[in-house]
Amino acid sequence: MVDGANNPSGRKTVKIGVVAPLSGKGAKLGLEMAQAVELAIEDANASRDGPDIVFELVRCDDKGDESEGNRVATALIEDNDVLGVVGHYNSNVTLAVAQTYCDASMPLVSPIVSNPRLTEQGWSNVFRFTNRDDETASAIADHLSGQLKKRRAVVVKTDTVYGQSMSEEFVRAFEKIGGTAVREYVVEEGTTEFGSIVGSFPENIDLVFYGGTFEGAPLLKAMRAAGLQHLLATGDGCWDVWNFLEPTGEVAERGEGVLVLSACPEIGMVAGSSEFASRYADRFGPVGNYAVNCYDAATVLIEAIVAAVASENAPTRRSVLSALQKTQHQGIAYPAPVKWDGKQDNVAALTALHVADAGQFRQVAMAARPTRLPGLEDIHNANGPFAP
After folding, report:
1. pLDDT tens digits, residue range 81-127?
2. What is the CATH number of domain 133-262+350-381?
């Protein structure tokens, strides 16, 4: 379970947990998350600027399952050397375990989970690094309506916590600005055959919105096989090289193509992100998803632990929480420094939109959160909420 190096130097060992699906269909995504955290810990241990401590990584596989998530959360809590956790990957798992961590005052930095409920429950130990479904949905709805003049959408969503949240927030935002969700379809997670659903789409639509993850690729293929050339817009569950871009191939560029949102800019848009991606690729292979978010989330937690150690030689989880609430950090995921709002959402988080181009995602627009951070007002003011 422990993935850290030995500590022969006598420096105090502090453990950080990272929990994600390291096996099963989400393994590539979970492994990228764990590997990014591993790099952050290695960087912290290579630095001699802080207190005389060494960080040790504890990697846990929750298999994307709620009961397994609770099991590994309990194991981390029972290890008194663990002062914080980066995780989990899936919305349903994170929502299921957050109270368990909260009861133990365990700091939990969530680099990816976007369900609004995560920071609406009053869990004082939970910090969301990424953006929220309600804000990303509003941003993509604004772009579809304002820039692309889309008015009538079919919505396909999976029966997962993420799929339901992303789609419901999109419908709410789209209808608020005058769009119409003509029909909604709910499919089981793991569905691969979409021919009958696509065949029943109403004729008078100009858009298909998909909320889910791995089912996006077969949905798009079924649309194009049936001769439907409509734009497929998706949540960030499809901002995934391995499970969306690679399986769809050139199909993603046919017809009106795809519009895929993400909760961070593409690599190269923020200082330091290209260098990180190159270093990550040399070690593990190309970045496919949210590695920069995971690296930054771990770094923020590390900085809070360092601050807690500096203020009291034997820090507790509570003292790390206190330091984390005050932490501000300029990372590589967002143009503005990480800073928490009253719900402990990251005010630096934003929404980016991407198309498929020559087998890669290419960013076409970006919007800051409605908080209008200093230095990001120009994004709002250039062309409405979005600017290229």
Report:
1. 999 999 999 999 999 999 999 999 999 999 999 999 999 999 999 99
2. 3.40.50.2300
Strand order in the sheet with 232-234: 180-187, 152-158, 207-211, 232-234, 258-262, 350-357, 360-368
Give the Å distances, CA to CA, from 177 to 1, 138, 170: 49, 9, 11
pLDDT grade for 48, boundaries at 50, 70 and 90? low
Specify the CATH class of 12-131+269-326 in words: alpha beta
d(CA 61, CA 34): 10
Entry pTM: 0.92
Q: Omega before 88 cis (within 30°)?
A: yes
Contact 52, 11 (CB under 8 A): yes
Tokens of 128: 């969301």
- Residue 129 DSSP one-character state: -
d(CA 66, CA 135): 26
| DSSP-assigned states of every residue in 80-107 | TTEEEEEE-SSHHHHHHHHHHHHHTT--
Q: Amino acid letter at 39?
A: L
Category of 37 on φ-ψ map: left (φ > 0), alpha (ψ -120 to 50) or beta? alpha
Secondary structure E strands in 141-234 = 152-158, 180-187, 207-211, 232-234
The tokens 């981390």 sit on which residue?
76
| 9 pLDDT higher than 60 | no
Our measurement of the distance from residue 57's CA atom to the centroid of its chain's CA atoms, rounded to an integer in Å, reads 21
Q: Are 12-131+269-326 and 133-262+350-381 in the same CATH fold?
A: yes
Phi, psi angle pair for 340, to nearest 5°: -95, 140
All structural domains of the chain with their residue ranges: 12-131+269-326, 133-262+350-381
Q: Which residues pair with 183 in a beta bridge?
A: 154
Close Cβ partners of 82 (under 8 Å, ≥ 6 residues apart): 15, 16, 17, 58, 76, 106
